[in-house]
Amino acid sequence: MASNPVLSSPNGARLSKALDQLDFMVSMDIYLNETSRHADVILPGLSPLEDMHYDVAFPQFSWRNHARYSQPVFAPAEGQPPEWETLLKLAAIASGKGGPEADAKLIDDDNFAGDVKRLFGEHAGAVLQATAGLRGPDRLLELALRSGPYGDQFGLKPEGLNLAKVKAAPGGIDLGELAPRIPEALRTPSGQIELAPPSLLDDLKRPAQDLARAVPQMVIVGRRDVRSNNSWMHNLPLLAKGPFRCTALIHPVDARRLGLANGAMARIANGSRSIEAQVQISEDMMPGVVSLPHGWGHGLPGARLALAAERPGVNLNALLDENWRDPLSGNAVLSGVPVEMSAAG
After folding, report:
1. Closest Cα to residue 320, out of 231, 215, 222?
2. In this structure, what are the phi and psi dihedrals at residue 33, rounded to the nearest 5 degrees?
3. Which residue ranges form the domains of the chain, and what is each CATH number?
4. Contact 313, 243 (CB under 8 A)
5. Tens digit of pLDDT for each residue in 75-124?
6. Mind giving me the DSSP string for 96-133?
7. What is the pTM of this model?
8. CA 7 to CA 16: how far, in whole Å?
9. Which residue(s) pair with 171 in the sheet?
10. Which of 8, 185, 201, 334 has its Cα between 20 and 30 A from that of 112?
């Protein structure tokens, strides 16, 4: 759903082949991109400007608490259902509990009622009555806001928040400085901040061994440009205009050592995997490091990203090994990978 892992995951070529072997694949997207080109069915989604938005993830990084609801800027096309209705119908089809004729609103009502009964027990009836008339994300927001630390607690704290108050403040509501939540928020066995848990201490042996190894002549790291943060942004005229951004940044020392000129093409290889990228010499780079941005490589057949295809760039992740993972987090290794670099051709 609105993601593009064929470009954004290591060894997207392998993933692409796997997607072709699926019995059935459905995507929900506003683009036919490098991933959704494999789908049997592509369901149209709403543009970000046609849907409501409430920040949930990024306020966790804010320096002040706040609540902000953004209304849709444009009305969706006639007959286009909200995203949540489409997803509920897909869930009904996949679970065998309904077909495309399933009533998404009734499914939403049933799911919500079940959640409320689990969360509020004997007070569930009152909560359901207090949230009557709302559905989908708005109803979930109403529940979260009113029962949260700043909420009106369904009338017990009249000065508190509810969805109507947040909607009435287009610029958002400032809830003040962050409040300390330690130690009650901790879930560690000791009830304290564990700066040196055994898992981290045991893993120190691994980087210690790395320090004893020879330093590779060149490693590659990724980067993100503010105007091309993700692959879909390369197909928007306002963001795609300007200088070409899919360049291999290297330090002048490395450029001289490798015989590379600004604007020339270079071959970057990791074993049998290789790509060719345009060189950009920069004093900002550390010697021995080359940087390529994330989310490029729009030259694959079957995708219909006409603007992005005019300057397709190359895919950094095509160099990376999907079997390399950080042993503690399980995350893919996307940076610091040894590569060889030379003039193309």
Report:
1. 222
2. -110, -165
3. 51-177 (no CATH), 214-343 (2.40.40.20)
4. no
5. 999 999 999 999 999 999 999 988 888 999 999 999 999 999 999 999 99
6. TS--TTS-HHHHHHHHHHHHHHHHHGGGHHHHHHHTTT
7. 0.84
8. 9
9. none
10. 185
